[in-house]
Amino acid sequence: MTILSGYLMPHPPIVISAVGRDQSKIVDATAKAMDDIGRQIAELAPEVIVVISPHGPLFSDAIAIRGEKTLEGHLGSFGASEVHIKKQNALELVEALAAMAVENNIPAVVFDHTLARRFDVSGDLDHGVIVPLSFVENHYQNYKLIEITYGLLPTDELYRFGQMLTACIEKQGLRAVIIASGDLSHKLKDSGPYRYDARGPEFDAWVIEAFRDNDLVKVVTADEAMCEGAGECGKKSLDIMIGALDGLEVRTRVLSYEGPFGVGYGVVALTEPQPSEQAKRFDEIV
Question: Helix, strand or coil for residue 183?
Fold first, then answer.
């Protein structure tokens, strides 16, 4: 099996003690669940980890895939430059994925430092990658990395891109883990980053219940108005990851959910993938 597992992991820097200090204790359940995922990944020993982040180079009309030979970044902007990730990119997989996407009319771009300078954005790894991988690095380091930043594309195109990701991984015979990096609603409380919106807790309940019921179609087909009103940043990451799991039955486990700062942090493991005709879900989402 080339896709070993998938995970939803949030990316609040405060969950890392070097950033959050005493406040990290408030989200201890999230940290413990993310550490559990790090241990799981170490046992699986993947050759490649694919992280889908909302906080890399975001385009309205294309998916971005980091294209530098070495991928590197730190949490210096959050006061913790010692939290640092440096990995080799799986460049053959990047090139194959970008080519297959374009061939199938899914716009994708290989994003390197030249494009970063052109668009005046950072060429470094963002916290959407660094925070989840910090928990992996505590237990396992022997992997290459791919960072994907979803584009603001329709759900079916993101899902198809996920299918192509798996096709490329299988063609190259790689053992891979996929991490959908994303926070859930940012509107759970007036004291959070945005004012409270009833669609915030509604969205979080929808997603968490769907995972508890192992209903991946329900996750992907969440109402767009609800998603927008919730102020979430994880749904499109999930669209790609669940697309990558198309045709695979998985075991879903909600390891943790909490939102003490007004942002929903969900940690979910999708494990033990097994091929199944009944798990071909694409026709159910279009």
Answer: coil
Q: Give the residue among 206, 194, 197, 68 at the shortest CA–CA distance from 129.
A: 68
Other residues' Cβ atoms within 10 Å of the Cβ of residue 199: 20
Angle ∠(217,93,155) on CA atoms, nearest 5: 25
pLDDT of residue 113: 83
**Which residue reads 């969440």 in tokens?**
222
Tokens of 9: 């992991």
Query: Is pLDDT at 285 greater than 80 in this prediction?
Result: no
| Bridge pairing between strands 265-275 and 3-9 | antiparallel
Asked if 36 and 138 touch (Cβ cutoff 8 Å), the reply is: no
Q: Rounded distance, CA 155 to CA 236, Å?
A: 7
Q: In this structure, what token pair is assigned to residue 248?
A: 């695979």
Neighbour count for residue 148 (Cβ, 10 Å):
28
214: region left, alpha or beta (phi > 0 left; psi from -120 to 50 alpha):
left
Pairing mode, if any, of strands 70-75 and 176-181? unpaired
Rounded-to-integer distance, Cα 222 and Cα 200, Å: 13
Q: Rounded to an integer, what distance in angstroms lies between the CA atom of residue 91 and that of residue 119?
A: 22
Q: At what angle do helices 235-244 and 155-171 cross, to 10 degrees?
A: 40
Q: What is the spatial distance between Cα 171 and Cα 102, in angstroms, rounded to a whole number? A: 17
Q: Which DSSP letter does residue 104 get?
A: T
Strands 70-75 and 80-88: antiparallel
pTM of the model: 0.97
Phi, psi of 55 (to 5 degrees): -110, 15
Is the predicted pLDDT of residue 1 greater than 80, yes or no? Answer: no
